[in-house]
Every structure is written in structure tokens, then in C-alpha cells.
Design goal:
The protein has 724 residues and is of the alpha+beta class. It is built from 25 helices and eleven strands. One of its GO terms (biological process) is vacuolar acidification.
């Protein structure tokens, strides 16, 4: 409870570590994870620090492992990033062995990858050639397949007046532009035949599927031949030699098919060898990644240390929770003993005027709530931690607005499954959305539980009601009246014989004004609970002011803030309770006339406008006699609180600084001046310029006023949206 109520006490410590024990000692400190080291080399470039060479070696090892992981992903081999038993950091003496292993694996994988690309390229070329030879059979089917019409040698064919042709393969999406370009350069003196390939080819460089088209261009003339080839090169088409005679084409096709079968066998054997190499690597790759990341973190930490004048030890400074000082001392001893250092490492506590970092110790239950609070901003050192109260208030306020027994039960079952099976699910590979759900499983569990509770109070389960205790309303009309009227109005004075024991009476499920009644009830509940929650949050600031002995801020900030909140929105909540008590069915009901119960919202708006609220005939204008005078006083006081919040703290700081300066000038003894200064709240904005204080206070005032108004209005807005 003490750890959750406010952040833990921190102390600044200085450690002295021998050079030979530095790595093992920082490794031990990293395993317990309770030291935040300060960088003592801010003025030193990152590339000029002592352990920059070791960091570069770790970067190179990380690059190699990321490359291997990428190749595993290409082959569809999944890597389990979560390791059951996290290994310790790699011993510096073993890094050379790991470097040689990764170098060998990377080189072998690169060679296999390059060979695979080359084999795939050859296979693609042979496949395209096979497609060209097969498709040209249909192109030449209706033409005499002799050298009388087509010449195999282009030079002699042109001299004898025979037709020449160019065959190749082109990307399908470029085929229409390709034909138009050929038509333009030849002025219509070419004949193009093409056929789309049924199966997609694999690009050896990218591994993506590519749809292609086989084409044959018939032409006559040497100049036209040169132009056609330039166009083919421009459209990045692949040209293949295709014999003019059918017998030669058939013989060439048989040879290509034989080479393709042999190439398939070689590719299959290469893929098996590559998969074997990667499978042997994947066994140790996750552990290697963790070890190298820890090793790199150790060297980054050591780069923040100072080297002693004698260059025999390293000096580091860091913030440590006071509860963990014994663990840190034990880690220093273990680090020195691991390497057999004759001189032990030791720790000194330092006095510091710098504000310590905020550290909140959490467990798996409170971790989600602490992250939720930290998302709005980190608290200052030793301030009250709202996460303790948010464990209950956040799920409850959610449930007040959600309030459904059926849907709440579904949420509860989903969260209960994640909680009971968290050991197995923690190893599950999921995306960002799954990680958010699993990290907040205890929050979702409480959301479901509280939603079930409020849903039971609202008597709402999947928009239906449950008649658990029996309705407290009775219909006192005779059978004829009930059967002959579509709508009947129940008089609460006569028809309501008892109060429903817990929650909303199920008879409201049948009422025409069900939505109006239930949404009004929920809206008022939300406003009352929301204002109470805001008042509680403002009151927590008093605990901080007392703890830090800033008693002046109780008068300068807390009192105007709580007055503004209570005089306006607290008064509105009071009016709701007063309305419920004063206007009962017996006192408010008049035959053939509307009730006299006023609208609290209209009262509140007219209160801010200093105007009267119109009422029905025969009804009082106000709920009690002194109401108009009291409301005007409340509004005036609330308006006065706004400049009070704005100028109170800055003016107080200006006055205290001036008085302190005068005392220091008058007093000749520094001790007396110091004692006189200590009597005031001198730590309130002591290090900030007065202009910054004015700006911060103005921002704080605007945020507070607008947040109180917007938060209260949001409850009204949420229920209005749910009604819509």
C-alpha cells in the first residue's frame, strides 16, 4: 500500500568498480534492474567514449542476426521471440566465438541466396523460352513452315525478300503500349501476334509473381529490324532465338524441357541445404539476440561512467530506491567475485539537490493501471500516485456509463480467460492490438465485473429486464379498461405499493417513457459520481502540499479550486438531491396538470445568466426562499476564484523573493539569512523565472476551469449520444 500511495524514496549513489569487474558488475545490476545511472560524460561525443569499439561489435552482431532473421522470414520459418529462461549477458571472452559462428552462417546464407537467385533466373529464362517455343507453334500453324516464307538467318532472309520475325516475352501490362509503339515506328508495316501465359512467373530478384505475354513480331527490312529491337529493349522485354522450321523448334523444345527438369532438381537440393542451415541457426538465434542486446546495454551503461585518475577503476552515479540498497550492494559483491577481483566494489550515498526520478513499483495487476495513469503524465517525485485509486474508480466510472449485465459478462469471460491462461498467452505472438488487450487484462476483468454490477442495478441485460424480486407496481384498473385502452397511465400514489429491493423496477421495460426515465437517471448518477470524483482528485493535492510543506499553496490553489468546483457543480448535485426529497408523488401530483418539479439543468443555466426560471401556473418559482440570493452569491464567488487561481501563486512568489532579497541585504550573517529564508515556502518555484511561472499558472488555470466544465458536460453528452 505504501509503495502504491506515492513513489518510492530514491537516493543518489556513487559506485566504484574495478576495470576488470566492470562488465560483470553492471551485468549483475542489470539483472536486478533497480538502478538508473546518470551520464557523467555529457560533454563527450558518443564516438569518443571508452567502450565505443565494443558497442560497434554488438551492432555488427545485431545486424548479422537481423539479416538471418530476415532470411528465415522469407522462407516462412517463424522465430519464437519469447525465450522461456532469459539468458544472462554474453561473456566478453565468448564474443569472438559468436562472431566467427555468425560470420560463417551469414557467408553461407549469402552464397546460397546468390546461387538461388542465379538458379531462379536461369529457370525463369528457360521457362520463358519453353513458353515461346510452345506458343509459336500456334502462330505458325496456318502458314507454310518452310524457308520460302520465313528465313532463319535474318541477313540472308532480307536479301531474298523473305519475312523476318522477333519472338520474346513481355510484361502483360505493357503489351498494349508495346503494340502501339510498334505500329507507330513501322507505319503499320509489322504484324504482331501475342498470347498471354496461363501461369504466373516468379521474379528471381523480388520473389513476386509476374504475369507475362509471349509475342512474335513479323516484319521485312533491316532498318525495321533494328527499330523493333530498340523498342523491345525499351520495354524491357526478353528476346529469344526461335527457329523458323517446326522440326528445329520441336528439337529445341525437347532440350529445354530436359534442362528445366535438371534445374528443378538442383533448385530443390539448394533449397533443402539452405533450409537445413537456417534450421540449425534458429535454435540459438532468439537466445543470441537477448544476450547481445544485454551486452550492448551493458557497454552503453559503462560509457556513462567516469574513469578514475589512476585509470584503475570506473566511477558511476545512479538513482537507487532505498529499499534496494542491500540488493545493489550484493550485486556489486557478486560482480567482483565472479571475475576474482582482489579489490571489491563499493557504494556511497550522495546528497543531491536535483529532483530524483519517480519510481512506482508495480506488479502484474497494478501494471496496467500505472501505465494508464502515466499516459496522462508522470507524477513528480514522492507525489500521491493516483493509480492506487484508479484501480477502483476507473472501472466503476466506466461501468456507470456502460451498465449492461449481458455485455459485461462477455467482457468478464474474455478477461478471465486471459488471466487464467496468462502463462501460455504470454508466449503468444500477436500484433499491437493483442498486446494492448493482454497487457490490460486485469483492467478489462474489473471493467466486466463492475459493468455486471451496474447492469444489475439498471436491470439491463442485452436491453432486456429481469423480474427477480417482483414488480412493486400494481394495475388497479378493471379488465374492461385494460382491454379497451392501448395506453394506460399508472398513478405512483395508487399503483406503487412497494419499492423494488435493488435496482430499477422491471415494469419500466413496458413504459413508453422508458428511455426518458432511464437516461435521466443514468445522466444524474453520472454527474453526481463524476463531480464527487473530481472533488476527490482536488482534495488529493492537499496531501501533496502537506507532504512537501507547501502550506501556502493550500490557500493559493486548493481553496479557490475546490470553491469553484463546489459552488457551481457541487451545488447542481445538491439541487438534484433536494429535488428528489422535496417533490414526491404525493406532493407534486395534481390532477389534469403537469407536476411542479423543475428542471435542474434549466435552473443551473439561469443561475449562470442571473435570470429567473419560468414555472407552470400554481407552482413556486424557486425550490426554497433564499435560492436566488444564494445562487448569485455562489456565481460571484466562483468568478472571484478564477483570478485567485491565476495571480495568487505568482504574486506570492514575487513577494517572498523580494522579502528574502531584502533580508539578505540587511543581514550580515549568512547563517541568519539562511535561517530566515527557511521559515518561508522558498521551494515554491525557486529556480524558475517569474515570467515562466506566470505562463505556467495561466495554463494551469485555463486547464482546470475548462476541464471541470468539460468533464461535467461530457457526462451529459455521453448519455445524449447513447440516447441518439
Amino acid at each position: 500500500m505504501g509503495d502504491m500511495f506515492r513513489s518510492e524514496k530514491m537516493t543518489l549513489c556513487q559506485v566504484y568498480i574495478q576495470n576488470e569487474a566492470a562488465y560483470s558488475t553492471v551485468s549483475e545490476l542489470g539483472e536486478i534492474g533497480c538502478v538508473q545511472f546518470r551520464d557523467l560524460n555529457d560533454n563527450v561525443n558518443s564516438f569518443q567514449r571508452h567502450y565505443v569499439a565494443e558497442v560497434r561489435r554488438c551492432d555488427e552482431l545485431e545486424r548479422q542476426m537481423h539479416y538471418i532473421a530476415g532470411e528465415l522470414k522469407k522462407d516462412g520459418i517463424l522465430i519464437d521471440d519469447l525465450v522461456d529462461d532469459l539468458p544472462r549477458a554474453l561473456n566478453p571472452r565468448d564474443i569472438s566465438e559468436l562472431e566467427s559462428t555468425l560470420d560463417r552462417v551469414e557467408t553461407e546464407i549469402r552464397e546460397l541466396s546468390q546461387n538461388n537467385v542465379n538458379l531462379r533466373a536461369n529457370y525463369t529464362e528457360l521457362t520463358e523460352l519453353r513458353m515461346v517455343l510452345e506458343k509459336t507453334q500456334s502462330f505458325f500453324h496456318n502458314v507454310l513452315d518452310t524457308t520460302t516464307h520465313f528465313g532463319g538467318d535474318e541477313t540472308h532472309a532480307q536479301s531474298r525478300g523473305q519475312l523476318g520475325f522477333v519472338a520474346g516475352v513481355l510484361n502483360r501490362e505493357r503489351s498494349f503500349a508495346f503494340e502501339r509503339m510498334l505500329w507507330r515506328i513501322s507505319r503499320g508495316n509489322v504484324y504482331v501476334k501475342r498470347a498471354d501465359l496461363d501461369e504466373a512467373l516468379i521474379d528471381p530478384q523480388t520473389g513476386l509473381e509476374v504475369h507475362k505475354t509471349v509475342f512474335v513480331v513479323f516484319y521485312q527490312g533491316e532498318q525495321l529490324n533494328m527499330r523493333i529491337k530498340k523498342v523491345c529493349n525499351g520495354f524491357r522485354s526478353s528476346l529469344y532465338t526461335c527457329p523458323a522450321e517446326a522440326a528445329e523448334r520441336a528439337e529445341m523444345l525437347r532440350g529445354v524441357r530436359t534442362r528445366l527438369e535438371d534445374l528443378k532438381l538442383v533448385i530443390s537440393q539448394t533449397a533443402d541445404h539452405r533450409r537445413l542451415v537456417l534450421s540449425n541457426t534458429i535454435k540459438n538465434l532468439p537466445r543470441w539476440m537477448v544476450m547481445i542486446q544485454k551486452m550492448k546495454a551493458i557497454y552503453h551503461t559503462l560509457n556513462m561512467f567516469n574513469v578514475d585518475v589512476t585509470k584503475k577503476c570506473l566511477i558511476g552515479e545512479g538513482w537507487v530506491p532505498k529499499k534496494d540498497l542491500a540488493n545493489v550492494t550484493r550485486a556489486l559483491e557478486n560482480g567482483s567475485a565472479e571475475v576474482g577481483s582482489t579489490i571489491p566494489s563499493f557504494l556511497n550515498e550522495l546528497e543531491s539537490k536535483q529532483p530524483p526520478p519517480t519510481f512506482n513499483r508495480v506488479n502484474k495487476f497494478t501494471n496496467g493501471f500505472q501505465h494508464l495513469i502515466d499516459a496522462y503524465g508522470m507524477a513528480n517525485y514522492r507525489e500521491v500516485n493516483p493509480a492506487l485509486y484508479s484501480c477502483i474508480t476507473f472501472p466503476f466510472l466506466f461501468a456507470v456509463m456502460f451498465g449492461d449485465l449481458g455485455h459485461g459478462f462477455c467482457i468478464f469471460l474474455f478477461a478471465l480467460w486471459m488471466v487464467l491462461d496468462e502463462q501460455r498467452l504470454s508466449r503468444k505472438r500477436g500484433g499491437e492490438i493483442w498486446n494492448i488487450f493482454f497487457g490490460g487484462r486485469y483492467i478489462i476483468l474489473l471493467l466486466g465485473l463492475f459493468s455486471m454490477y451496474t447492469g444489475f442495478l439498471y436491470n439491463d441485460i442485452f436491453s432486456k429486464s429481469l423480474n427477480v424480486f417482483g414488480s412493486g407496481w400494481r394495475v388497479r384498473y378493471n379488465s374492461t379498461t385494460v382491454l379497451t385502452n392501448n395506453n394506460l397511465q399508472l398513478d405512483p400514489v395508487v399503483a406503487s405499493i412497494s419499492t423494488y429491493p435493488l435496482g430499477v423496477d422491471p415494469i419500466w421495460q413496458l413504459a413508453d417513457n422508458q428511455i426518458i426515465f432511464l437516461n435521466t437517471l443514468k445522466m444524474k448518477m453520472s454527474i453526481i459520481l463524476g463531480v464527487t470524483h473530481m472533488i476527490f482528485g482536488v482534495c488529493l493535492s492537499v496531501v501533496n502540499f502537506v507532504h512537501f510543506k507547501k502550506y501556502a499553496l493550500i490557500f493559493l490553489e486548493f481553496i479557490p479550486q475546490i470553491l469553484f468546483l463546489i459552488l457551481l457543480f457541487g451545488y447542481m448535485c445538491f439541487m438534484m438531491f433536494y429535488k428528489w426529497v422535496k417533490y414526491t408523488p404525493k406532493t407534486d401530483y395534481l390532477p389534469d396538470t403537469p407536476g411542479c418539479a423543475p428542471s435542474v439543468l434549466i435552473y443551473f443555466i439561469n443561475m449562470m445568466l442571473f435570470s429567473a426560471s419560468p414555472q407552470a401556473a400554481g407552482c413556486d418559482e424557486y425550490m426554497f426562499e433564499v435560492q436566488p440570493v444564494l445562487e448569485k452569491i455562489f456565481v460571484v464567488l466562483a468568478i472571484i476564484c478564477i483570478p485567485w487561481i491565476l495571480v495568487g501563486k505568482p504574486l506570492y512568489i514575487m513577494i517572498t523573493r523580494k522579502l528574502r532579497a531584502n533580508r539578505q541585504q540587511i543581514s550580515s550573517l549568512g547563517k541568519n539569512a539562511e535561517e530566515g529564508a527557511n521559515n518561508d515556502d522558498h521551494d515554491i518555484g525557486e529556480d524558475e523565472p517569474i515570467s515562466e511561472i506566470w505562463i505556467h499558472q495561466a495554463i494551469h488555470m485555463i486547464e482546470y476551469i475548462l476541464s471541470t466544465i468539460s468533464h461535467t458536460a461530457s457526462y451529459l453528452r455521453l448519455w445524449a449520444l447513447s440516447l441518439a
